[in-house]
Write a structure and sequence with these properties.
The structure holds 2 protein chains of 2 kinds. Chain A is an alpha+beta fold. Chain A is built from 9 helices and 21 strands. In chain A, a hairpin with a 2-residue loop joins strand 17 and strand 18. In chain A, helix 2 packs across helix 3 and helix 2 packs parallel to helix 4. Chain B is mainly alpha-helical. Chain B has a single domain, classed as MetI-like fold, CATH 1.10.3720. Helix content of chain B is 75%, strand content 0%. The two termini of chain B are 40 Å apart. The chains are: A alpha+beta, B mainly alpha. Chains A and B meet through strand 6 and helix 2 of A and helix 8 and helix 9 of B.
Chain lengths: 371, 276
């Protein structure tokens, strides 16, 4: 149980800035996911929270306690490492009991805790084995067990599922959430997989180039990304982008890309302000394949050449090169599509995301409503 | 294919004969009587095999068992001291990040780059002023000087191979560094520790020049040095007795080598040590 508070945390390695101005408040018992591409600084941030890495600037607080100079072992944290970090020379039982023994608990108490945790994770029959005698999934459970058996205030997980096969990964996601509900710890979870982030996090922290880009619930990130990076990173398949020029006639503001033209509603027109070009983002599920190429004022209708078609059983992803960009449409398989084919895509104007072309910052969010 | 195998077999056979011939000669001579051992026309194997040379070692005028004990004690002590000092040093060089790390690591190695005789005079003076000449303790100090750098570097490579996450787990579990070293790292690199200790032990055992220079009392001498000073007289050399003594000197080394031979191979193919 602990609130975690990061204030202006920064980290430099000589001339390289690994983290800059990271501010984050994590509530007690919250499950927060740090997500970003490799090199985004998410693992460094996690290791700073753990105390395994020194920070160059800023403060870390656990509740009312500033822990900058508190040693790892005194922070009351537990951590699950990507490679599990199990003690190879100890049995599963001893792996779990090792930390408890350090805390000078009574042997009977240690035994009770280890057995209770083993029960929770279905590893009771494995207690006498060594880590090398376990499968990947079993090792993962032992690593989880070792972390929670101590009932830590903070539970840190560094890409714990990345060494598992896809099937097991999905299964262990649910397992980890179950474990988190069973304990009272605040959890911080690092992953590069945005699907994992969306499915697991109470809140998600998107990181890129050492900076926190956006913090929000999965729905907030998906519906209202604050910039082009978050928009492109969150969601599968990724959002498509096209660069448009802005046309102003009287009070009306419209966007143009090649032949395609779409008018903007007044409050969105305001957001575009004096920009001469904007980047339009469209989620794949908001696009449909249409046969009539006639333009409507309140839709974006754009023609392009199919590059790749991905068949996913119930549906297909169609990647289309359009003037000034690439769009991906997620559509049913009712209409067969072939590469090189010229198709027309349409999206409602209210579903478009607008981004400032030079900075990538979101200009306005689309108006929410039924599809 | 067959031809190349025959060539291989011949090459291996020659190499084997080359390395084993002196050992065979040592063994064979140790069983010859005095006359046969010093015959101008040498015999390939003892025609009148005798154990007299070995009996002479125990019951003779020279305190041979004392030499043996001296050697075992000083070499074991050297191995223990060198490993005890080298472990924390190697751990620090492997894990700690400090500015002069490279300089320190190579600085340790400098004494190893010098020929043994170069160290001899300074070591002699140091031991003289410390009143450690002609004592087993002084000998251990000398042996350790030469064995320690090697031990540090060898242990460092073993520690490098231990995945850092395992140690970080122990840090998260609340253990201080020295306990992590003793309770997590050392058990994981135990084959490496044994291998290192054996190498240092063998190095000390083979060291002839230090005991010859530092020790003056014959009763305190080590086996290799005693061999040289005791068996070569001005007018005759007791070849049989010398070879029997040499055999006894060699045996413990062979035993030590075969005892750790398996873990030595495992140790040299490090990385597999941690297994996870």
């Amino acid at each position: 149980m602990a609130r975690i508070s990061l204030r202006n945390v920064g980290k430099r390695y000589d001339d390289v800035v690994a983290l800059a101005e990271c501010n984050l408040e994590i509530a007690d018992r919250e499950f927060v996911v740090l997500v970003g591409p490799s090199g985004s600084g998410k693992t460094t941030l996690l290791r700073i929270i753990a105390g395994l890495e020194h920070m160059s600037a800023g403060d870390v607080w656990f509740d009312e306690r500033r822990v900058n100079d508190v040693d790892v072992g005194d922070r009351d944290i537990a951590m699950v490492f990507q490679n599990y970090g199990l003690y190879p020379h100890m049995s599963v039982y001893d792996n779990m009991a090792f930390g408890l023994r350090r805390r000078k608990l009574a042997p009977a108490d240690i035994d009770a805790r280890v057995r209770r945790t083993a029960q929770l994770l279905d590893i009771a029959p494995l207690l006498a084995r060594r880590p090398r005698q376990l499968s990947g999934g079993q090792r993962q459970r032992v690593a989880l067990g070792r972390a929670i058996v101590r009932d830590p205030a903070v539970f840190l997980l560094d890409e714990p599922l990345s060494n598992l096969d896809a099937h097991l990964r999905v299964q262990m996601r649910a397992e980890i959430l179950k474990v988190h509900r069973a304990v009272t710890a605040t959890a911080v979870y690092v992953t590069h997989d945005q699907v994992e982030a969306l499915t697991m996090g109470d809140r998600i922290v998107v990181m890129h180039q050492g900076r926190i880009q956006q913090v929000g619930t999965p729905a907030e990130l998906y519906d209202n990304p604050v910039n082009r990076f978050v928009a492109g990173f969150i969601g599968t398949p990724a959002m498509g982008f096209i660069e448009c020029s802005v046309e102003r006639t009287g009070n009306e503001v419209a966007l143009r890309a090649g032949d395609a033209r779409v008018g903007l509603a007044p409050q969105r027109a305001q957001a575009v302000d004096r920009a001469s070009t904007v980047v339009v983002g469209v989620r794949p599920e908001r696009l449909s394949l249409v046969d009539d190429a006639s333009a409507h004022a309140d839709t974006l209708t754009v023609r392009g050449v199919v590059q790749v078609v991905e068949m996913l059983g119930s549906e297909q992803y169609v990647h289309v090169e359009v003037p000034a960009g690439m769009l991906t449409a997620r559509v049913t398989r009712d209409r067969p599509v072939k590469p090189e084919e010229i198709v027309t895509l349409r999206a409602a104007a209210r579903h478009l995301h607008l981004f400032d072309a030079p900075t990538g910052a979101a200009l306005t969010a689309p108006v929410r409503g039924e599809i | 294919m067959r031809a190349s195998r025959i060539v291989q077999a011949i090459a291996l056979g020659l190499a084997l004969a080359w390395s084993l011939a002196p050992i065979y000669w040592m063994l064979a001579t140790s069983f010859k009587n005095e006359l046969e051992a010093s015959a101008l026309d040498p015999t390939l194997w003892p025609h009148a095999a005798t154990l007299d040379n070995y009996r002479g070692l125990v019951g003779g005028t020279l305190p041979f068992p004392t030499f043996f004990v001296n050697t075992v004690v000083t070499c074991l002590a050297t191995a223990a001291v060198a490993v005890a000092i080298a472990l924390p040093a190697a751990y620090a060089l492997s894990r700690a990040r400090f500015r002069s790390r490279g300089a320190v690591a190579y600085g340790i190695l400098v004494s190893r780059m010098l020929p043994l005789v170069v160290l001899l005079a300074p070591l002699y003076l140091l031991l003289l002023h410390a009143h450690l000449l002609d004592s087993n303790l002084g000998l251990v100090v000398g042996f350790t000087t030469f064995g320690l750098p090697f031990a540090v570097w060898m242990l460092k490579t073993f520690i490098d191979a231990v995945p850092i996450e395992i140690e970080e787990s122990a840090r998260v579990d609340g253990y201080p560094r020295w306990q992590i070293l003793l309770r997590v790292v050392v058990p994981l690199i135990l084959p490496g520790v044994l291998t290192t200790a054996t190498f240092v032990f063998m190095d000390a055992w083979n060291n002839l020049i230090f005991p010859l220079s530092f020790m003056t009392t014959l009763e305190k001498q080590t086996l290799p040095a005693a061999l040289v000073v005791s068996f070569t007289g001005q007018f005759k050399t007791d070849w049989g007795g010398m070879m029997a003594a040499a055999t006894v000197t060699t045996l413990p080394l062979m035993v030590a080598f075969f005892a750790v031979q398996r873990s030595m191979v495992r140790g040299l193919t490090a990385g597999a040590v941690a297994g996870v």
